Automatic annotation (TrEMBL), chains A, B:
D-serine dehydratase-like domain mapped to chain residues: 249-356
Protein name: Alanine racemase
PANTHER family: D-SERINE DEHYDRATASE, ZGC:162816-RELATED
Annotated GO MF terms: alanine racemase activity
Family membership: Belongs to the DSD1 family.
Organism: Belliella marina
UniProt entry tagged with the keyword Acyltransferase: no
Keywords: Isomerase, Lyase
Major enzyme class: isomerase
Amino acid sequence: MSYLSKISSPTLLIDESICRNNLERMSRKAQKHGMKLIPHFKTGQSKEIGKWAREYGIKEITVSSIKMANYFSGDSWDNIHIAFPFNPLEANTLDQLASKTRISVQLVNAEVTEILCNSLKNEVGFFIEIDAGYGRTGVEVSDFGTIEAILRKAKESSTLVFKGFYIHAGHTYYEKDIPKIYEETRLALNMLKNKYRTEYPNLVTRLGDTPGCSTMDDFGDIDEMGPGNFVFYDLTQERIGSCQKKDIAVALAAPVVDINKEKKTILVHAGGVHLSKDVLNEPDGSRNFGEIVLLNDQGWIFLSEHSYVKSISQEHGIIQASDELIEKTKVGDLLGILPVHSCMTADCMKSYLSLDGQWVDHAEGN
Amino acid sequence: MSYLSKISSPTLLIDESICRNNLERMSRKAQKHGMKLIPHFKTGQSKEIGKWAREYGIKEITVSSIKMANYFSGDSWDNIHIAFPFNPLEANTLDQLASKTRISVQLVNAEVTEILCNSLKNEVGFFIEIDAGYGRTGVEVSDFGTIEAILRKAKESSTLVFKGFYIHAGHTYYEKDIPKIYEETRLALNMLKNKYRTEYPNLVTRLGDTPGCSTMDDFGDIDEMGPGNFVFYDLTQERIGSCQKKDIAVALAAPVVDINKEKKTILVHAGGVHLSKDVLNEPDGSRNFGEIVLLNDQGWIFLSEHSYVKSISQEHGIIQASDELIEKTKVGDLLGILPVHSCMTADCMKSYLSLDGQWVDHAEGN
């Protein structure tokens, strides 16, 4: 029986073979460059996808909150890294988690380092997050005062163990010159490694953004990579050039509830609570909340003419449809929507249906 | 013990007294105009808030999906209305639900009407949704062909019962001239009522949008109102003029994880998975993802200088802070964030913490 027969309301589909290809490709790339791949599981948030990842030699993962770390604990990961400046209100929860799972966190200031020094009974690793130009989070690369305040403070603790430096070069999402961003990132990480390796001979450097990890072929001496989105990819990544549309591993199945042949619009049950409100601004000024694909028993196929979700509200999605799509579609059909931002769509939907009709888990809650 | 002691990660706060004031005010307004208030519970999605609503004479509710209708069934509502063009793939689920709860749906075409005629064993009411200018969903007000095709088809069924006409004048969110929109809405609903009341003497007319229901004082002969957002309000509604900031009943409590005194930014754990990515574009070109308030044991208080979330990603929120806020805040504090779109924020968070430290329910899933 087709997976399609299980769907009567908005449902996030996952194509396991595409997802496995994405995992395998990035895993090989890391291997080729002598790097360890520690994928960021904020995208999939799934134990089942974790199983697939382990088949490609992945032994450690990254997450973005302690709740997510809890979700994956006990799943035989060598280490779970929480790639978010640590929230000191969760110090005790961290300590409990560290009593059963190897955990590392990210630190960006001495205040939180001190709180952890005073509260951790169990060993926790830490990376110092560095800002080398993105400007969102992290210690500025030249701010040795803060870096050394963190290291000095951590030395007072026997449980807080320095692991290395981490950069999320998130500006690869917005700026076209990824090679230039990566040159700066490599320079920053190498400078820090050289400066501190005498004192910390085992320190490692890590970067983690899907555009860079997907498109670059020069990682210099960087030891580890932690991209997240690559496991699914999405329209944003396709626009950047990180992937092709055929590499997108998830699509929202959306029920068609009305068709307006004059306006060439199709109303689907697929709104902001399903897709999130991430949007691509098209060169012609239109806004694109997702691209339409046709669903069949094997998965999804592309349309020869572009059709897209032109507007959404909480539950409604309005598709601007090509003649081809208007022709093919009737009320009661399901259409597929490739998401603009797959991490957010997966977080909205909280489960996946595989193309062989199995439900795949996603962590609950935030 | 303060509710604040229960919070270590992003948590949506609800001020019950503000929420009750909003319910009471709208309930009185409806009463004053001889209208029935049938609030849209897609905003709160909460049985507990439903209990509060019943104390103000509210006996029927509106929802946006059959899953949400299921959530509220059995909670002693006289009727649950699903205000979304009905998804025919859920016809059997609807029939099951209608065997235990009084339900009504919205129809916009003859195809779905026919499917329901053929599948319903239990009585279900229906409204015809009319588009009088918003352009999102509904039968165009002058499209009597479709209206009559729906009515003719429904007559073949003994279980599908016509209730009336429904307009969601959602353009009140975007266009300044709400009185003009309401004049058109009233004219459309009155024209339809006059045209069909001989054949359907009990038919009613309903409108439902928070900006109109909050700001207008002339509803003509319209029988019912179904606004949703008013139960919480938010920054979008404040901008439109539907409410004042003091009427906003929910705020996200967000842990402070880093402060940059030079840039005057504060990093909080509060991203798109908590607030949603709805945004207000400010006159000066900046983007506002939420306004900062200070939390205390009694709830939240406003700052004399404006501070706001200037950018968000999946889990990160960056606050552009006033001098006052930078001065008052330290790492490990909690700050409050008034949401841009409270319906979406509540749907992201899936629970509320009241100011007396009780958890308030929110429906799971989409």
